[in-house]
Amino acid sequence: MIRKVYSKEGDALRDIELADDVFGLPLNDDIIWYAINNELANRRQGNACTKDRGEVHGSNTKPYKQKGTGRARRGDKKSPLLVGGGVIFGPKPRDFSYAIPKKAKRLALKSILSLKAQSDTLMVIEDFSVESGKTKELANILSAFGAPQRTVLILPGDDAMTKRAGANLPYLDFLAYNRLSAHCLFYGRRVLIQESAVKKLNEFYHPRGKQAGVTEAQDAA
Known about the structure:
The chain has a domain at 2-27 and 100-220: Ribosomal Protein L4, Chain: A. Helices cover 33% and strands 14% of the residues. It has 8 helices and 6 strands; from the N terminus they run E-E-H-H-H-E-H-E-H-E-H-E-H-H. Strands 2-1-3-6-4-5 form a 6-stranded mixed beta sheet.
């Protein structure tokens, strides 16, 4: 797959090849749903906590005697049936996180990258860095690629000053090529990838045995 590389000003510069094994796969709805739900579950704090009737502070005595009043039988005031009483089967602190197979996660990310590439919401831009760390400078660069909307910028490495510049942009998310997020990618309305990050993505997510020019015959030998 051949795509254009754009400058910071939004001008087309040259062509770049996107690996079909990374950016040309068919959409796999099931694996994308699986990966996104896994990320959301891993983000949950799981600290919701309620008290049952044994943990509520209060007296254990009956509010009135069992018989002779004409009223229904009543236990102590900590009963779940009363306001201020315990909670029946309420939530307790727990860990919602779980792991999914590495191959499944990688397939989901490649499927999302392919979806963005095929829907023309993915653009490749030349490498740049906001050395000043100023939000205005980064906002001017992003404005060359359309109106502000939910944007994902994939970097080839850790660029502290560029991330600092985008900290005040609520619509912008930064991702490293080797630490992608299925949730951010899928819901991003615009995905911008720096040119060096594309080359690293092609290598990082390329099927084993076809990297660095290794052929099947060489691999068998």
